[in-house]
């Protein structure tokens, strides 16, 4: 994710903080300071930091369970709305998905249980004097917020863990796409209820409703893509009949290519046929206005595009394309030579062509928590 800073590495997983999270922390500290001075600011900020530490441990619960099944998690990012664990691969069986999904909330159950145990012992030891002890207040607040995290994440709607758990349970009986479809529908129905209650009461619920609704739609789309592209290699769907631009092309040359073809994305190749970058027709038109026709395309093209190989799985390439900000992914051979492009349009066309034939799907994972 862009604008993230790596803070630590645990078991091969990069723990990252998104810049907006730091701004959020600063805002919390400032508003507490404004309301009650330095000590209130320190306590308030400490609570938020500890809360997000619990969220991080929750995500690590997912990631470390996934690792038991040979699935790596390149990074976990903390955002003001929660944590996101990016699982590299897809759990192969519903049972694995179930265990990975449950592991997160289970971490919060354990944290809450430990905190309550400690609190009880303290309360027994010295009943009354603890009531004004800020450490005790902090611990009891943390315990209740962990219980809230468990309940919230178990809401049976994507992108919450509850949605994954529901889908995994359904997928034990039904095929994967059907299970996802039902889980997504349940999620959207819940979003509708939240939205309705939110309208008359808590506006926070409106926000959750939107979050859940979008999560369910995205998951349903992704499941459809995967249902169709399952087990297909990239080579099946790549565009090979296309115009490439040479390294020394000007924006005028590029504009000519835009006019003469129906392409939206143009690969830029060096003399040896290796990919240097990708330039879109929108980039070309925009750059023409700003730099004029004689300027080189090199300063406008998207460099360092992620690449895929012809034998890579198409559904994973599609996920890679979605999570990167690149308009298309170049396909290269083992010598680094350009073979073709994977674009959102041609994956869409692929889906239309293949959807006449029923196939089994496989799950995809993106864990997000509010
Ligand atoms: Zn979770």
Task: Walk me through this protein's architecture.
The chain folds into 3 domains: 1-154, no CATH class; 156-230; 234-356, Roll (CBS-domain). 56% of the residues lie in helices and 13% in strands. It has helices at residues 19-36, 38-68, 94-125, 134-153, 161-171, 176-200, 203-229, 251-260, 281-291, 314-323, 344-354, and strands at 4-10, 13-18, 75-79, 82-86, 245-246, 265-269, 275-280, 302-303, 329-332, 338-342, 367-368. It has a 5-stranded mixed β-sheet. The protein has a 4-stranded mixed β-sheet with strand order 5-6-7-8. Helix 2 runs antiparallel to helix 3, helix 2 packs across helix 4 (134-153) and helix 5 (161-171) runs antiparallel to helix 6 (176-200).
Key features of this structure:
11 helices; CBS-domain; binds zinc ion; alpha+beta; 56% helix; single chain; 13% strand; five-stranded mixed beta sheet; 370 residues
Strand order of the largest sheet: 1-2-3-4-11
How large is the radius of gyration? Answer: 25 Å
Domain unit count: 3
Give the count of helical stretches: 11
Give the arrangement of secondary structure elements.
Layout: E1 4-10, E2 13-18, H1 19-36, H2 38-68, E3 75-79, E4 82-86, H3 94-125, H4 134-153, H5 161-171, H6 176-200, H7 203-229, E5 245-246, H8 251-260, E6 265-269, E7 275-280, H9 281-291, E8 302-303, H10 314-323, E9 329-332, E10 338-342, H11 344-354, E11 367-368
Helix pairs in contact: 1-2, 2-3, 2-4, 3-4, 3-5, 5-6, 6-7, 7-11, 8-9
The chain binds zinc ion.
